[in-house]
Design a protein that fits this description.
Blueprint lengths: L11 E3 L5 E2 L1 H6 L8 E2 L1 E3 L4 E2 L4 H12 L2
Antiparallel strand pairs: 1-4, 2-3, 4-5
Length: 66
């Protein structure tokens, strides 16, 4: 994979002092599903993102679609 449009552009780090709803969970969750909260987020997007493989992968996939 090429570095210029890889995960280097999106770092999921501890961003928020208070927990926020994970953006990826919200997008995937149906009306009745529980949305997860996290102190982590994408530094570049300033969006809350769980530090789990799933959420990070979905976040990257969403942004790498051209």
């Amino acid at each position: 994979s090429m570095p210029e449009r890889g995960s280097a552009l999106h770092e999921v780090v501890k961003l928020y002092p208070k927990k926020k709803t994970c953006r990826e969970c919200s997008l995937r969750a149906g009306a009745k599903q529980r949305r997860g909260v996290t102190e982590y987020g994408c530094l570049q997007c300033n969006e809350p993102v769980h530090q789990t493989k799933d959420c990070v992968a979905h976040h990257l996939k969403r942004h790498l679609q051209l």
